[in-house]
Amino acid sequence: MADSTTRPCWICGAPSNSREHKIKKSDLVRRYGSGPFRNIGGVLHFVDGKSRKVPGPRAKTLMYEPLICSDCNNAKSQPWDNAYEKFEKWLFENAKIILQRRFILLEEVFGTDAVPSGCPELYKYFVKAFGCRLSDAGFTVPEDLVLLLPQTHFQTRLRITFAINKTVFVFPEIDREVFLGIGDLIRIDSLSQGVMERYLWHMQIGWLRISFFYDTEVPCGIGAPWTSDSACLYLGEFESSSLDELIEGARSDTAPGLSVLEVIRDNDGILIE
Ligand SMILES: [Zn+2]
């Protein structure tokens, strides 16, 4: 892999000199505050099962090495970042309604202007997040994703879904919203054709799982695929771990939460509310 200081920006090709957060700083600040994390009891960053203490929302462990230039990370992507921040804030404040009706009208988030366009700015934020993840892993960002960023109308192989992660609801409400994470990047190669540009990835924002499918099939049940072609996001539902798996895990670790999980199992199971 090239020296990170000389790596070209995957969006425009200029030298990379700007760090992008793996998880948006506004997501971290909303949940943990902008001060040092030790003031709230500490935050742990988990990578490959190992944890490290995170000092605050600008910690280097929460950012990628420079993969884009400051112009792309600031001026150019500002409308995309703003769209995402608005979306995430609305989601956070309207969780009860969304969990009941299982769809998100972008008109309610962004106003009526978003209706005809399907809010490409929000989609482009996800393209930026996905492109940075690919680039960080040493993969070339597929050309259609780079080319669509300056366009209003575009074709894309990246489909995004939105789903409720039911497993998060075994935890008390106060803990549920603080789940923030990005998943492993998976490349799907072909036995006959070798290395392919096909990828799977996800972000977990509180109870919402945002899944990325690049040039690969979207499984049923995890929400309607979205490419900014619609102003309504239909949510799916899934469990990242079943209740039985959680109980099994808690039993083998003699975790204090075991009795709580057993009470949930003996009543109605995990309830999304
Ligand atoms: Zn750039």
Order of helices and strands: HEEHHHEHHHHEHEEEEEEHH
| SS strand fraction | 15-25%
| Main sheet overview | 6 strands, mixed
Radius of gyration, CA atoms, in whole angstroms: 19 Å
Mind explaining what this structure looks like?
- There is one protein chain.
- By secondary structure, the protein is an alpha+beta fold.
- The chain has a domain at 77-240.
- Helix content is 34%, strand content 17%.
- The chain has helices at residues 25-32, 70-76, 78-93, 95-101, 106-110, 114-117, 120-136, 143-148, 173-176, 243-252, 258-266, and strands spanning 43-47, 50-54, 103-105, 158-165, 180-182, 186-187, 199-205, 208-214, 232-234, 236-238.
- Strands 4, 5, 6, 7, 8 and 10 form a six-stranded mixed beta sheet that branches. The chain has a two-stranded antiparallel sheet with strand order 1-2. The chain has a two-stranded antiparallel ribbon with strand order 3-9.
- A hairpin with a 2-residue loop joins strand 1 and strand 2.
- Helix 3 (78-93) crosses helix 7 (120-136).
- It is globular.
- It starts with 24 loop residues before the first helix and ends in a 7-residue tail after the last helix.
- The structure holds zinc ion (ZN).
